[in-house]
Amino acid sequence: MRVVFAGGGTGGHIYPAITIARVLRERHPDSEILFVGSRRGPDSDIVTREGFEIKTIDMTGIPRRVSLRSVLAAFKAASGLTKAFAILTEFRPDVAIGTGGYISGPVLLAARLMGVPVAIQEQNVVPGFANRVLSRLARAVFVSFEESRPYFPRSSRVLVTGNPVRREIVEKGRTEGAEALGLDPGRPTLLVFGGSLGAGVINEAMCEAYPSLMKIPGLQVVHQTGPAGYDATRSKLVQRGIIPKYGGDIVLTPYLYDMASALASADLVVMRAGGGVAEITARGLPAILVPLSGAPGAHQAKNAEVLRKAGAALVICQEGLNGEVLFHAVKSLLSSPARLAEMAGRSRALGKPDAALEIVREIEAIVAGRGR
């Protein structure tokens, strides 16, 4: 079986594809798998670390308003389609899977024009523009939430599978995870991250909150700043005396390649509300969610609302976030083990740890000619 995955730009688009690819390789050891991603962002770094081949296309999203930037982006998109044809002609896939992001558009369109069956996988309640358009070409649309159905045409074959989560995210034990990060598994641990690229507003709120947070007895913090925010965040913590005073209790890093260990160690997570919500629900972790303001279709706000309604998360709007608000939210939860445990149970009830296997079975059916 020859399978191409198209998507990228952020970890939220890349990791679901990697998870599906891993299960495919387990079930079909002789399968050939190719990723097509963006030259921008973490695509190549993440995919090659996972042992898969990747080819890149240089293009950007097309702004909705007509401008010089949108014209240049349109030219790059046309060039991207040509490059996609060349990549697919050489690889000769049996099926193409898109996981979102502007790269998926030209690759799946080229695949469909070449007669290759395509499927798409959507991580958010509100699908991205590319996935909404491409759903009309797809044999199957794999969604993470039941609430996503109305956003797709009635003619689309929409399957609620959940968002694929890497096996180690679910299986890694707390002691193993804590030791991998140099933490004490017996102490309360807060995990903070703003997605694969980081979030400046979360980093700033954390810098303001650290002096109070570190007075919580025994607290340890794992904080992913994002590559662009690491130096500024660390500098502020040094200036405020947080580092080195509490340096041994804070794991500050630009990027967490070992997210499985971080999640296994955590009692509470502060994060955006993108594709990572699948990992915390599969793991059964309570969260404080800060949805990205201005995200297309307000998709992060709607993801967060699903968890809030279920009682699995608190939600703080980006505009209302500051150090004091964040500190009080964290303290209120960590000081109430019963509430934390109830939220954890409600989070776990939303999780779909077998999503990747369900998607792979559908892919197998499509390749075998049994799909729609």
Q: What can you tell me about this protein's structure?
A:
The protein folds into two domains: 2-165 and 353-367, Glycogen Phosphorylase B (Rossmann fold), CATH 3.40.50.2000; 168-350, Glycogen Phosphorylase B (Rossmann fold, 3-Layer(aba) Sandwich). The chain is built from 16 helices and 13 strands. It has helices at residues 11-27, 43-49, 68-91, 104-113, 129-134, 167-171, 174-180, 200-213, 230-239, 242-245, 259-265, 277-283, 299-310, 323-334, 337-350, 355-367, and strands spanning 2-6, 32-38, 53-57, 95-98, 118-122, 140-143, 158-160, 189-193, 220-224, 250-253, 268-271, 287-289, 313-315. Strands 3-2-1-4-5-6-7 form a seven-stranded parallel sheet, with helices on both faces. α5 links the parallel β5 (118-122) and β6 (140-143). The longest helix is centred in the first third of the chain and has 24 residues, at 68-91.
Looking at this protein, list some descriptive labels:
single chain; 372 residues; alpha/beta; Rossmann fold; seven-stranded parallel β-sheet; six-stranded parallel β-sheet; 16 helices
